[in-house]
Design a protein that fits this description.
By secondary structure, the protein is of the alpha/beta class. The chain contains eleven helices and twelve strands. The strands form two sheets. A seven-stranded mixed sheet has the order 2-8-7-6-5-3-4, sandwiched between helices. A five-stranded mixed sheet has the order 1-11-12-10-9, with helices on one face. The radius of gyration is 20 Å and the shape is globular.
């Protein structure tokens, strides 16, 4: 499989980075070296490098997706109409259109949450996970608390670690960068009246297989109070440059987020992609891709097991694996010198300099990578 990170725009504005860091220092003075929340996998990639740092699938979009997107290019004089795409996404998840908010990538969803929920008192982010949720909260002035999952326990979620009075909880499932897929019942246990529970399912469609798509997703749950499920269409379908994602939740909660969203935030081409990716053809294709991905991931994990000192974290379930190995910084730089890019782990809260994230690729690429990794570790 060819997957290239985050649902974050490639390259943050310098002013935004400075504002975020200033806000971080204002609300939570660091006691030591703080992770760089603005660092993402695309920063690891350079010309001529084989990209194992970014988690977006790199195969070209199929015709059923590319053609509707291309068709919109002759009709860009009109303002975007999100209604058809919203209806299509709602139908896919067996929801009402009022329970769907389309966004310019999942990253916009985090910003809307941070801006709209100004009244929250105790926001908690469960780490290690994608850093943009915490970055968006801090940029909006929220004093964020972190719950750090234990690597010795495979980064499994323990709901009792989350403070009872937390009124906003954010967690990824499957989680980037650990690739751990938490049981739906465990994540659902975090929901309660008076709390907003944000579950980032940007990689949910990479889990399962041909006959069991998205086994731990909460996307269709309408009974959990305060639940917001965030989805991305950029990972499996290679649409990071198009910026398309969506939020699922109660209409009254989504209305609060929509109130702070810019007008026409999602472009006409992105809306066409959303509608196409919600089709039955897309769902069937996703499941086939997930099945192939699982086989390629198993191959990568098996090959890594042959390398002394390398430990794969938890039970990987997505398009990437997290590795613990001694002197990872030197190894990462050595890999780069040999033409390979991997994702550093020390920018994720809860990890440190001995962690690397590696994207799952096809078996030939994996085999070549393992040999270069072995050579680099022995150098």
């Amino acid at each position: 499989m060819a997957y290239a990170d985050s649902d974050c725009p490639a390259g943050h504005l310098p002013g935004r980075i400075a504002d975020m860091r200033d806000q971080f220092e204002a609300v939570a003075p660091p006691t030591g070296a703080e992770p760089d929340l603005a660092h993402h996998g695309d920063a690891e990639v350079g010309a001529g490098l084989i990209d194992l740092a970014v988690n977006v699938r790199q195969a070209p979009p199929p015709a059923w997706l590319a053609d509707p997107i291309a068709a919109t290019l002759t009709d860009l004089a009109r303002y975007p109409d999100p209604a058809p795409a919203r209806a299509a996404v709602a139908a896919r998840h067996r929801r009402h259109p009022d329970e769907v908010l389309l966004t310019a990538g999942a990253a916009e969803g985090f910003v809307l949450i941070a801006q709209a929920l100004r009244g929250i008192r105790r926001p908690v982010v469960v780490h290690p996970q994608f850093t943009e949720p915490e970055a968006a909260l801090r940029a909006a002035g929220h004093p964020v608390e972190r719950v750090l999952l234990d690597p010795a326990d495979g980064f499994r979620l323990d709901p009792s670690l989350v403070p009872d009075d937390a009124d906003l909880v954010m967690i990824g499932n499957p989680t980037n960068p650990t690739s751990v897929l938490h049981p739906a019942r465990t994540v659902a246990a975090l929901a309660r009246p008076g709390r907003v529970l944000v579950v980032d399912e940007a990689f949910a469609d990479t889990t399962g297989g041909a006959h069991s798509g998205e086994p731990e997703s909460l996307a269709q749950r309408r009974d959990l109070p305060g639940l917001l499920v965030l989805r991305s269409l950029t990972k499996t379908w290679g649409l990071a440059g198009l910026r398309i994602g969506y939020l699922l939740g109660a209409p009254e909660l989504l209305a609060r987020l929509a109130a702070v969203q810019p007008l026409w935030a999602v472009s006409t081409p992105a809306l066409a992609a959303a509608a196409a990716c919600a089709s039955a053809v897309a769902v069937e294709a996703e499941r086939a891709i997930a099945a192939d991905l699982a086989a390629d991931r198993d191959h990568l994990v098996a090959r890594l097991a042959d390398l002394p000192g390398v430990r794969v974290a938890g039970r990987p379930a997505s398009a990437f694996v997290l590795l613990h190995l001694p002197d990872a910084k030197r190894v990462r730089e050595g890999l780069r010198d040999r033409g390979w890019a991997v994702r550093r782990g020390d920018t994720f809260p809860g990890l440190g300099p001995d962690w690397l994230r590696v994207a799952v690729r096809d078996r030939n690429t994996t085999d070549a990578f393992i040999e270069v990794l072995r050579e680099t570790m022995e150098a």
